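chain below, 474 aa
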Amino acid sequence: MKHIEGYLRVSLFLSEMGKLSGVFSLRHFLVLSLALNVALISRVVYEGENWREEQIRALMADASEKSAHVSMSSSPPPPSPSTPSSMAVTSTEIKDDGERVINLDHGDPTMYERFWQQMGDITTIVISGWQSMSYFSDVKNLCWFLEPEFAKQIIRLHKIVGNAVTDNYYIVVGTGSTQLFQAALYALSPPNASEPMSVVSAAPFYSSYPSVTDFLKSGLYKWAGDANNFNKDGPYIELVTSPNNPDGSIRQPVVNRSGENLVHDFAYYWPQYTPISSPADHDLMLFTVSKATGHAGMRLGWALVKDKEVAKKMTSFIELNTIGVSKDSQQRAAKILQVISDSYEPVGNPKESGPFFHFSHSMMEERWKALRSAVKQSGLFSLPEFPSSFCNFLGQAFGSQPAFAWLKCEGGIEDCGNFLKKHKILTRNGKHFGASPKYVRVSMLDRDESFNLFTKRLSSLHLSQSKDHEEESP
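prediction:
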């Protein structure tokens, strides 16, 4: 309406000017008319762009305001139509007939979808058909298939969050952290050793470590089990996942002997999962886009490597394995990291907080409260407790709220995974992590509907169901 009113005012003005034709020539009149129309069009475009920017800022402000409210309150506030959390589904709205299968076995981070949906096309990029055609990204870089803009945004985000040192590190990009893990094993293993290098990790360890390590039956390395029980002489590789998958604990190396080669997996060292107490500074550190921003489908991760020769060998492994990494994925990831960093470094207002990590932290906080409430109501389960510590990035103290729940069945239930499966809840059994089958790993990252249905069903499982399970077991 403002644009129409403006046009009418301009038309009226031009009409009045027409009455002064005796004073102004036709040429003057046409020049003035053109100038006024150009000014009007420019104002329409300017106001349209301002409207778009105001919508984005409003979304960010709403998310930040909600996060601040949650951090100061003992319980989460009710969803508001103006906040990104308005799409949350409360447990009271869910009707559960007990027949729907709830699959929380995989750590698919679909819970982040609604945040990025409400951000609109701010992270959209357009790649023309002629772009990204070459194998090479930067021939002068040690990792020649690393896109310069992606590298720039990785360094920028680490500096903003404060979770990793990047100065004097080489960046190696991979198709997810799994490929980087394989590249690290290859790079750290002597090529002419008399026997394979032992690879260990303290139990409970990530369930994919044994299978990925031994999948190729390499003569360079082999899985050697729980680091707590490792006593073999000679060089070895210890995998240190912190926060740990599956139990969320903060880890340090266990073996601590001569000949050690450490790989630190920091997939979950982000402020939505754990307090950022200090920047990590280790020889070889792995990160992944999937758990940082939720974009698992990009299949993209990166390693920060101190030793140049190790970085070269990792690059060679990826070169032989996949001849580099998708440029399209890197360009898209660069844009997403840029948007997150921009929201924490707005031009002209450096004190304004951006929304993503505040939003995701608040979401994880709400989910852990809901899960602990369900566990308490049931009485059949237990969860680990996490000490509170100060997060330098968020500026507040809180306990870890991991991406996975390490759930233990009590009440005489020996196989927790099988018990939950009978109630159509799929989890990952503790035996896959080198632990007791009384434990299961539960993903906290699924969509709202699935997660809320899970907590509602879990809270309804009581001692009577446990006894029924024992009677049915052989």
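The two ends are 75 Å apart (CA to CA). The CA atoms of residues 282 and 363 lie 30 Å apart.
thats it, cya
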